[in-house]
Amino acid sequence: MKIKLVLLCFVMTLMSCSKNEDASCLSDDMVSVNVKLSGFTITQDTRTLGKKSDQYGDDALTAGVRFISFSVFDSQNKKRVDIVQSSSDTNFGVISFSITPGSYKILAVAHTGSKGEFVIESSTNVKYPADIFYETFCGSTDVELNSSSKDLELSLGRISSRLDIKSSESIPDEAKKLRLSVGDITKERYSSLFFNPSTGCMKDFGVDGYYTNTKTLNPALGVDMKFNLLLNKEQCTLPVLVEVLDDNDQVLYSHKLDEVSFRRSAITTATGTLFAGWKESVTFQTAWSEGTNITF
């Protein structure tokens, strides 16, 4: 899945104050930049997501991405602009800032989760807003800003992977939750999640610790659980533990797989028998699905 942001930058000389600059007021050599994200179109591939294909108009970002974090770094890697937007903002997708002319790196990260914005600590380190991975998009570009108008196109690609757990079984009354653990469970659980926006990877993910996420089972919906992940490289193999829990988080059924293949921006689908204890018949299908294309 790719997201394309068309950034239309209108640069002009202004004599006004800006909260993004160290100086209290702009001088004659300051420029104002308006960044407009336009042309939102989202198409969901039924083969990938198992949903009816939907296509939205210019406001489709509100239906998918919930938070955008936007930063600008100068040639000394100093953050000069830091802007966060949520889908509830009236100006969602339109970013304005003032800055001196020069060479800059523009960085944008976005996600579909509900727990707030990313913290862009540097051009090489971004912190998740919670201890849960969301579907995540990232993109950056280097730009020279001067007193002339400039049109920019910034393409955000999906950097997350996804594991889908599916079963055709009926959910037993005592089964209330499904817990997924990915990585080396003999080590510590990750309490904070970071990634490098230039690579889209979380360094040593699954090697120096493990990630866990627990979701509630709904008997009316059956077992069709989706878990987003970030990887330590473009494609990797990691151990996975799937556990069925009761109301008190006691383990009812457990399935451990030592090698599950993951790839960035692709879905690994796991199918099998969850509610019958350990069985040799449990199989996990890890064929890659085609990605979903998003253009805006």
The overall number of domains is 2
User: How many β-strand stretches?
Assistant: 20
Strands of the largest sheet, in order across it? 5-4-7-10-11-1-2-6
Weakly predicted, low-confidence segments:
6-27, 37-60, 278-286, 291-296
Shape: elongated
Helix content, binned percent: under 10%
Distance between the termini: 12 Å
Q: Overall mean pLDDT score?
A: 76
- State the helix count: 2
Strand content: over 45%
The largest sheet, given as strand count, sense and whether it forms a barrel, is: 8 strands, antiparallel
Helix/sheet category:
mainly beta
Instruction: Give Rg in angstroms.
Output: 22 Å
Order of helices and strands: EEEHHEEEEEEEEEEEEEEEEE
What does this structure look like?
With 296 residues, the chain is mainly β. It has two domains: 2-158; 161-290, Sandwich (Immunoglobulin-like), CATH 2.60.40. The protein has two helices and 20 strands. The strands form five sheets. Strands 5-4-7-10-11-1-2-6 form an eight-stranded antiparallel sheet, with no helix packed on it. Strands 15-13-17-18 form a four-stranded antiparallel sheet, with no helix packed on it. A three-stranded antiparallel sheet has the order 8-9-14, with no helix packed on it. The protein starts with a strand and ends with a strand. 31% of the residues are buried.
